[in-house]
Specification:
Number of strands: 11
Oligomer: single chain
Protein name: Inositol polyphosphate-related phosphatase domain-containing protein
Organism: Paramecium primaurelia
Shape: globular
Helix content: 10-25%
Low-confidence stretches: 1-13, 327-333
InterPro entries: IP5 (IPR046985), IPPc (IPR000300)
GO molecular function: phosphatidylinositol-4,5-bisphosphate 5-phosphatase activity
Strand order of the largest sheet: 3-4-2-1-11-10
GO biological process, one term: phosphatidylinositol dephosphorylation
């Protein structure tokens, strides 16, 4: 595992570049970067990087920013029988909060209708993280699951853990699609963590926009009701958003040709934001420097090119948002003028973690309390 990112970073207040028109235009002109990314996508030999490796940390205090690790992974109905050490790097990497959002977790979607428990998965996660991390709250809906762990030094500052669910499957009852969420107070700040599994399909982006909008409104209202009529401060959203590439890509195309920025520029989530649709309004996402995380062979980093072939997609994503509505002190101060306290430090995908037809995506944040 590399200790430094292979890709460019920029200085505060945005430590990691964002996936928007400006940064996309800038990096898509970098010939060396284009060559590297095209090769990574052609051979699927991407090596991820984590920040803060081998930087031990003493007990948390108010002089430190909180470090948050957020992971999203569609597990394809299984629990890996191998170690997840390379996902958490728990021996050499410290976080105050760890959030894991999974889809198709532990069991298939159909089986999960009759048995929703994720106890086995939670036990595995606790064993992977060790005694220094304590479960704060979790939520499940059908095959979706989200869990929040906190380092024991931060536990005294955490309270009011709440869980929420919202079904968007068949007739709005079945939870094969929809979202789940957990909210917690860390000192006087309210954190909202959402995990969703949106409609699949190449031509379903409009429906995914509608699902996302309804989930955001629902969970925002739930937090307001359950936290003494106070809005959340920070929202981090994981999920299998099922975003696809608007291009007719064939198995032969993938074998012989790779155009990273060409495909990324046709990513449906990016196009929705670029066209100023309501989908994910005011949300931010880190610039993508990793290959599509779907659809791959379960136990080998290669595209699935047989009868189960799907057009590749950056389905697995992490978005975030700081609620600044309650913090603006004067009408002359705009959202853009305010310094964000929630900062994305890293955004990557881990192709070392096999067992599913998706690869997990992770983000590292700091937030000033």
């Amino acid at each position: 595992m590399k200790t430094q990112s292979a890709y460019p970073l920029i200085e505060d207040p945005l430590p990691f570049p964002l996936f928007n028109e400006n940064f996309f235009s800038e990096y898509s002109q970098d010939k060396k970067l284009i060559g590297n990314l095209n090769q990574e996508m052609l051979h699927l030999n991407h090596k991820c990087s984590y920040k803060w490796l081998n930087q031990p940390r003493n007990e948390w205090n108010f002089e430190n920013d909180i470090r948050i690790l957020v992971i999203t992974w569609n597990m394809h109905g299984m629990i890996p029988n191998h170690s997840l050490k390379r996902l958490f790097n728990i021996d050499i990497l410290y976080h105050d909060i760890i959030v894991i959002g999974t889809q198709e977790c532990q069991r298939s979607i159909v089986t999960s209708i009759f048995c929703e428990s994720k106890n086995e998965w939670e036990v595995k996660l606790q064993n992977e993280l060790g005694k220094s991390y304590i479960k704060v709250q979790s939520a499940s809906l059908n095959a979706m699951h989200i869990i929040v762990f906190a380092h024991k030094s931060l536990i005294p500052k955490i309270r009011n853990g709440k869980q929420y669910t919202f079904s968007q499957g068949f007739m709005g009852i079945v939870g094969n699609k929809g979202g789940i969420a957990v909210s917690v107070n860390i000192d006087d700040k309210i954190f909202l963590f959402i995990n969703s599994h949106l409609e699949s399909g190449q031509n379903s982006e409009s429906k995914r926009q509608t699902q996302f909008s309804k989930l955001e409104t629902h969970f925002q209202n739930q937090v307001f009701s359950n936290h003494n009529h106070v809005q959340y401060d920070y929202l981090i959203w994981t999920g299998d958003f099922n975003s696809r590439i608007n291009e007719n890509i064939s198995p032969q195309t993938i074998k012989t040709h790779s155009d990273f920025f060409g495909w990324l520029g046709k990513d449906q989530m990016y196009l929705s934001r670029h066209n100023k649709l309501n989908y994910q309004s005011q949300f931010q996402e880190g610039m993508i420097f990793f290959p599509p995380t779907y659809k791959l062979l379960q136990n080998y980093n290669s595209w699935s090119l047989d009868q189960d072939f799907r057009i590749p997609g950056w389905c697995d994503r992490i978005l975030y948002k700081e609620n600044k509505k309650m913090t603006i002190q004067s009408t002359s101060q705009s959202f853009k003028d305010m310094t964000s306290k929630l900062k994305l430090q890293n955004y990557d995908a881990n192709f070392d973690i096999l067992g599913s037809d998706h690869r997990p995506v992770f983000a590292q944040f700091t937030v000033a309390i």
